[in-house]
Structures are given as C-alpha cells and as structure tokens.
Amino acid sequence: MNDAIEQPPMKKGLSGTALRVATVVPLIPIIIWMMFVGPRWVWQTFILAAIAIGGYELMAMKVPSSRGLRSWGSMTAVLFAYTLMFTTTASAVYGAVLIIILGAMAWSLLQDDPLHNASVRVGWLLGTPVYVGGTLAAVALVRDFDPTGAWVLLTMVLAWGSDTSAYFVGRKFGKTKLAPRISPKKTLEGSAGGLAASVVGAVIMSFFLPGLGPIDAIALGILAGAAGQAGDLLISVLKRSSGVKDSGGILPGHGGILDRADALAFTAPATWAYGHFIAGF
User: Fold this and answer.
1) pTM
2) What is the distance between the alpha carbons of residues 165 and 120, in angstroms, rounded to a whole number?
3) Which of 17, 55, 88, 186 could cysteine-pair with 74, CB 3.0–4.6 Å?
C-alpha cells in the first residue's frame, strides 16, 4: 500500500476585513498630516494624483479598447481639476473645456473602432474630466477653508459616515429595496440611517467650524448625505454596466480610487458650495 503523500499546508491570506484594515491604517496618519499640517501643495498633489488614477479607472471601464484613450481621459481629468484648483478666471476654465472638446473630437475621428462605439468614446472623453476632475477638485479646495483641514474632515464624515451607517442599519433593519436593479443590497432603511448619520456628523462638526451653524449643518447633512448616496449608486451603475466588480485594484480590499471616492466625489462639491457661497470662504 502506497504511503499517502502529504500535501503542504495551504497558505491563508488575509480575510476581506483584515485586508481592508491593513490597507487603510498605514495611510491614516499620512492623510491626517497632509490635511491639517502639511504644505498646501502636498495635499493638492495628492488629490491630483488620485484624480489621475480615478480618470484612468473610469476610462478603462467604459472605453477599454485603447490605452491611449484611457491616458487622455486621465490627463484631461487632471487638467480640468488643476484649472479649477489654481485659477479663478472664466477664460482659464473655458480654455480647459476647449482642450477637452477638441481632444474628444480628434480621438473620435482618428480611432479605428467600429463607428457604433463612437458615441461612447465621445461621451466619456467629455464626461470623465467633469465626473472625476470636476468633483474631486473640491476635496482640495475645501482644505483652504478656515480652520485648515477641518472642512475636509467634515466632507469625509458626510461621505463615509453615511456609507458606514447605511451599511449597518441596512443589514439590521433593511427590508425595502432602494434600487434593486442597480444595487440589490441597498435598502430604504439603510439610506435613512445614512442620512441620519450625515446630519449627526455635520451637527457635531459644526461646534468646531466657524461659519457652520447647527441649522445649516442639518441642511448640509441632508443635502450632502443624499448627494453622497447618489454618487454611490452612480458608480454602481457604471460598474454594473461595464461588467466589473471594482473600478480598479490599487487599494487591496477596497478596489480602486473610484470605489472609495464614489460618495466623497459628491459630498465634497456640496460642502464646498456651502462654504463658498453661504459661509463666505
């Protein structure tokens, strides 16, 4: 009788939760330093790098046939964000928009892909700079509000506090589907819990932020919380229509930049709009 061959023990990788924690924990002190203490240009560079990756991820999902198109979408997202972050004149913004439009026209005419794909190419060559660069630029802009970094923290609380609360409330009490065709696990109960967390987080932050009163904090919590949830659903639509689970793989356990910044991309403009037009920063 042959002796049984002993198999080497299987190597176990980190669980999903452990991998997420292991990815995020080393980044937390670095991000906090950039938000509150580091030079302004360091935070701006960090956001522009995230926008470059996010733009590439989006183009890779929607126009996967050409690396050149992906790179152009990434660059124009950075161009548009840079223009919003560093200029205040309408002519500069219009110049960036003109480059984006002309580039979309050129790529569409020069590509050899079947003609029926042209509308998709044009749409995302025009849409990627706005969706990625135009929204995430606000994460850099709110750092300039006084006190430095605190409004960025508020933006994150509104986005990720809502997301976390919606997840746990939905798991515990969720019964009514919110958008079953887009994201079957999301529920109305979870959505309500997320909005409540956004309001509570905004009210707590209002005690540390001059210019943000409790009543305004409630309004901002509802508005930004709802915008963040809409952003979460939007990236789900984009991924589902592209047949992918994650937008990318740069953050092990989390996916890509767009997977983590889906809600933040919409709470940030809402927070910036309040700070700029109402609080007067």
Assistant:
1) 0.89
2) 35
3) 55
